[in-house]
Amino acid sequence: MDLDELRSLITRHARPDMTTAIDGVLISKVEQPSPPSPAMSGSVLALIAQGAKRIALGDRVYEYRAGQYLVASVDLPITGHFTEAGPERPALGFGLILAPATIAELLLQAAPGDLPPVGGGAPSGMAVSEAPAEFVGAVIRLLRLLDRPRDMAVLAPLIKREILWRLIAGEQGAAVRQLGLADSSLSHIARAVRWIRDHYTQSFRVEDVAQLSGMSVSAFYRNFQAVTAMSPIQFQKQIRLQEARLLLATHPNDVTGVGLRVGYDSPSQFSREYRRQFGAPPSQDAARLRGSTLSPAPALV
Predict the structure, then answer these.
(1) Rounded CA gap, 92 and 266, in Å?
(2) Which domains does the chain have, with CATH numbers?
(3) pTM of the complete model
């Protein structure tokens, strides 16, 4: 697989905020290895053109490098960092935000028998595969449009659909297809994930969230664990601690207040769980973060 043109396009058009002129398309250029940092994955396809990255999700670890892509079918709390990057050979990546509505439209257009049936259980919310040549070729053609603004409005949506189709029909297609099916196990878990994210400061009963997701408690717990590598309560804890770290970056002198804002009634429990997650107590980590800018943007690219 020849990635030279892809590397050249990413190098030429990379911006600090990873955005491009094409809606939903991200590119990144990182010139030094980074320490592991927490973030939300987003629902995204990420293709590495150069370098390597390691992602931890619960007790699972994913590594992907040049010529490989990672799919996150649900917005998940992760810890990630580039393991291969340098000024002479920066890490280069491409990302495409996954839109369930577009995936659903493609599934409706597929002829019977074009795709294998989707299994009943929820797949893992994250997976890594080798990128086929035709997949990489479509990504290159999409990024070429950054040099041809006149063609972008008409051709970019068509090429994005091609990339999604190749993703749907590829090795990780089962998870991506479930993302586009309103009644799939993955969609039910994604609904629960969104609810927990929106209400992360509140205590909840797993039975109530299972009912919201339209599943029995046993099926919900089993599928939630399969997708996120965490229990629902562990997931909520990850969200709380990540939100606390974002708040501490801008309110470093209000550790107790930050703990209360993210749902901790006990300052000692907040400090204990924060230290376990980030390797330092909140006050010490806040001092280190002072002046830093932490972003909740997708962190896989």
Answers:
(1) 43
(2) 4-179 (2.60.120.280), 185-233 (1.10.10.60)
(3) 0.85
